[in-house]
Design brief:
single chain; alpha+beta; Arc Repressor Mutant, subunit A; Alpha-Beta Plaits; 2 domains; 4-stranded antiparallel beta sheet; 5 helices; about 30% helix
Length: about 160
Amino acid sequence: MYIIGMMDETDRAIVTMLQADGRIANAEIARRIGMAPSAILERIRKLEERGIVRGYTARVDPGALGYGLLAYVLVRTTDCPGQDQTGPALAALPEVQEVHHIAGDDCFLVKVRARDTESLGRLLRERLGGMTSVRNTRTTIVLDTIKDTTLVPVDAEEPHHV
């Protein structure tokens, strides 16, 4: 889906501000842009309706809640095309933050948060290993995170097609 062409400069400015601070007041956005707060509210509603702004959430430090171990798990399954039962099952696990259906030898890339290597091992052996459709897994444990963001670039440039 390509939407940037459907957004004007004001929409891009609003999205940029909301990404930086989801709790920013409409009045503050209006002040910075030089528009009426009611006009900003209407634009935000339209951005939400069009699915550009999908929601608002607090970013929580996983380590502060005891989930300091981050791992990425490649999962290979026996699912046939069009018979995806594993993806939803993976997504239902509370330690799983992201599930991506991928191209290549493996079927899914899964981002997992765990308390420690012992709890990660249990998750892999008991819950993922207990899924009949999971053929095998390969796990990479993150030692240090250099960049972790949810920000999406919002600019007026057309995407470059190669």
